[in-house]
Write a structure and sequence with these properties.
Rossmann fold; 10 strands; globular; single chain; binds pyridoxal-5'-phosphate; four-stranded parallel β-sheet; 2 domains; six-stranded mixed β-sheet
Length: 333
């Protein structure tokens, strides 16, 4: 797909590394585990939102925006990176944060909350979990307009067709890296939240006639909700690019059993996975997204879902500040 024709800002120099995790592979005793280090993408602290923001912020600038408005949970990597992109572009940024546990937002909450303030967020509005965040963002945009600003709403998770283009591009990057390193990838495993990453990646692979299955580990919703959302985003990407890529429902492979009791709620498997990645490879995962996704990868390998000879690529989508906001979880032995 010829993505160079779409406006894009560049926040990362070159490709993120794709490497084998020899010691983690040995510790799990199964499939050959590889990692794609999207935690090393550009902007403050890296992570998957950087790729989406390259396209979204280019669009905001094209429209003459001076203020980015977006939303997320209290410890939102997406909000931190949208704010970081705003700082880099000389724009202002206002955030709507949904609070699951009342009182969990306070300036000493650490992790991403610390970074919102360090990066000079212009305004934060905390709303209860389950609020209509789209309506909240529209209200914030109206308020900004009344102040003479030109606001641009970045959707939740950056997961519209434009944001997902970042992962259409990533699919092409992975295919090239597999080709040049001579490592045929058999499976890709990723964390799935608002589903833009999964949808873009799947569209990018299939659009290049590459049928590597992607296993999505849900960290937010049931697999039925996710499946519906992925179908919608894929249709929107196809419309935006004007490309018809047939993607049957069976091409979408999702697991919601690693979510545990819900978004941000720790699981024993997540704690084991975060510690194992740190102690075998020195790689830091986060408790909300990549820790649960790695717990899924490890469990599915142990159960034989991935064969011992398979090359399984784990997409590290970032989230490191979330680890520092949850340190006590990992301290007791
Ligand atoms: C670290 C990390 N990994 C994975 C995801 C999930 O990506 P998506 O919302 O595109 O499914 C997010 C979303 O916020 C994230 O912050």
């Amino acid at each position: 797909m010829y993505l160079a024709q779409y406006p894009r800002r560049r926040y990362t120099e070159g490709h993120t590394p794709l490497e084998k995790l020899e010691r983690l592979t040995a510790a799990v005793g199964g499939a050959n585990i590889y990692i794609k280090r999207d935690d090393l993408l550009g902007l403050t602290g890296g992570g998957n939102k950087t790729r989406k923001l390259e396209f979204l912020v280019a669009d905001a600038l094209k429209q003459g925006a001076d203020t980015l408005i977006t939303c997320g949970g209290i410890q939102s990597n997406h909000c931190r990176l949208t704010l970081a992109a705003a700082v880099k572009e000389g724009l202002k940024c206002r955030l709507i944060l949904s609070e699951i546990t009342p009182g969990s937002y306070h300036t000493g909450a650490g992790g991403n909350v610390f970074l919102y303030h360090m990066l000079g967020v212009e305004n934060i509005k905390v709303v209860p979990w389950g609020s209509d965040v789209m309506a909240e963002m529209e209200q914030a945009a109206d308020k900004a307009k009344a102040e003479g600003r030109k606001p641009y709403i970045v959707p939740m998770g950056g997961s519209n067709a434009l944001g997902a283009l970042g992962y259409v591009a990533c699919a092409e990057e992975i295919m090239q890296q597999a080709f040049f390193s001579g490592v045929p990838i058999d499976h890709i495993v990723i964390a799935c939240g608002s589903a833009g990453t999964y949808s873009g990646l799947l569209f990018g692979l299939r659009g290049n006639n590459c049928h590597i299955p992607i296993t999505g580990i849900s960290v937010l919703n049931s697999k039925e909700v996710l499946q519906k959302r992925i179908t919608e985003i894929i249709e929107k990407i196809a419309d935006y690019l004007g490309v018809n890529v047939p993607i049957p429902q069976e091409a979408v492979s999702l697991f919601d059993e690693y979510l545990g009791e819900g978004y941000t709620v720790p699981t024993a498997g997540m704690i084991e996975a975060v510690k194992l990645a740190a102690r075998t490879e020195g790689i830091l995962l986060d408790p909300t997204y990549t820790g649960k996704a790695m717990a899924g990868l490890i469990d599915l390998t142990r159960k034989g879902y991935f064969k011992k000879s398979d090359n399984v690529l784990f997409l590290h989508t970032g989230g490191l500040p979330g680890l520092y906001a949850n340190m006590p979880l990992f301290l007791e032995e």
